[in-house]
Task: inverse folding
C-alpha cells in the first residue's frame, strides 16, 4: 500500500511533550519521526526527508537555531518552531533565519494542527505557482486580483495606495505565514531605516481602516506585536 501520509520530524527534548504531541499528530493522520537532540535530528532529517519539521529551540546539545540553519543550507522543508512564552526576539530570529512559522508554548492541539495545515498549504501553493502568482487570490470575502492590482472585500473595491497594495499582495503571497517586520519592509520598500517599522504600522492601520476592521480585531490579518503580520488563511484566529 502506498504511504501517502505527511511525515513530520518532531525535534523536542521534553519526553512528556514529545509523547503528547506524538499522540496528537498521529491521531491527525501524520507519520511522526522523533528526535530528542539536535545531533539525532540532523541524522533523521537527512535519512527520512520529512515533509515538515517541528522544532523546539531549547535543545540539550545545541541551540535549535543551529539545526534550523543546518536544514536551510540546502532545503526548503517547512519548519515550525516551538518557542517559549512571549519571547518575541527568538521568534523574529527564527523567522528571519527561515522558519516558516512558530507556535508559542503552551499551545492547543487545534492551534498546532492549524499551523501545520497552513504551512503545508503555503509551501505547496508556492511550489506550484512559482514566484509570480497570476490571476486571483481569495480568502473568505477578501479577493485580490493581481493583474488588475485590485482588492475587493465583500464584493466592493477597496481603494488602496500603491504601498498599501504592495503590503497586502506580499502578505497574501505568504498567506498563513507570519512575516516579520523586516521581511515585509524588505519586500515592499527594498531597504529599511529607522522609521521603517513605524511607516509599516501606519500603512497597516490605514489598510485595516479601509477593510472596516475594528481595532484589536484579527480579521484578514493578525498582528503580533514585536514580531510581524500574518494574513489568515483559515477561520479568524
Ligand atoms: Ca526544550
Result:
Amino acid at each position: 500500500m502506498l504511504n501517502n501520509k505527511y511525515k513530520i520530524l518532531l525535534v523536542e527534548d521534553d519526553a512528556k511533550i514529545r509523547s503528547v504531541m506524538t499522540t496528537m499528530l498521529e491521531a491527525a493522520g501524520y507519520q511522526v519521526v522523533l528526535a530528542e537532540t539536535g545531533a539525532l535530528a540532523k541524522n533523521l532529517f537527512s535519512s527520512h526527508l520529512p515533509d515538515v519539521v517541528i522544532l523546539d529551540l531549547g535543545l540539550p546539545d545545541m541551540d535549535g537555531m543551529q539545526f534550523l540553519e543546518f536544514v536551510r543550507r540546502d532545503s526548503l522543508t517547512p519548519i515550525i518552531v516551538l518557542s517559549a512564552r512571549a519571547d518575541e526576539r527568538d521568534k523574529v530570529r527564527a523567522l528571519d533565519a527561515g522558519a516558516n512559522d512558530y507556535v508559542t508554548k503552551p499551545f492547543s492541539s487545534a492551534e498546532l494542527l492549524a499551523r501545520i495545515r497552513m504551512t503545508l498549504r503555503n509551501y505547496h501553493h508556492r511550489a506550484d505557482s512559482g514566484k509570480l502568482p497570476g490571476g486571483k487570490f481569495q480568502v473568505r470575502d477578501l479577493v485580490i486580483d493581481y493583474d488588475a492590482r485590485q482588492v475587493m472585500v465583500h464584493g466592493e473595491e477597496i481603494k488602496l495606495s500603491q504601498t498599501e497594495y504592495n503590503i497586502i499582495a506580499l502578505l497574501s503571497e505568504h498567506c498563513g505565514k507570519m512575516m516579520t517586520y523586516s521581511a515585509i519592509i524588505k519586500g515592499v520598500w527594498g531597504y529599511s531605516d529607522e522609521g521603517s517599522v513605524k511607516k509599516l504600522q501606519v500603512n497597516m492601520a490605514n489598510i485595516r481602516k479601509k477593510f472596516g476592521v475594528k481595532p484589536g480585531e484579527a480579521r484578514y490579518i493578525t498582528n503580533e506585536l514585536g514580531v510581524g503580520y500574518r494574513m489568515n488563511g483559515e477561520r479568524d484566529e
In short: The helical segments are 15-27, 38-48, 64-72, 88-96, 109-129, 162-173, 181-188, 196-211. The mean pLDDT is 88. Residues 13-14, 56, 58 surround calcium ion (CB under 6 Å).
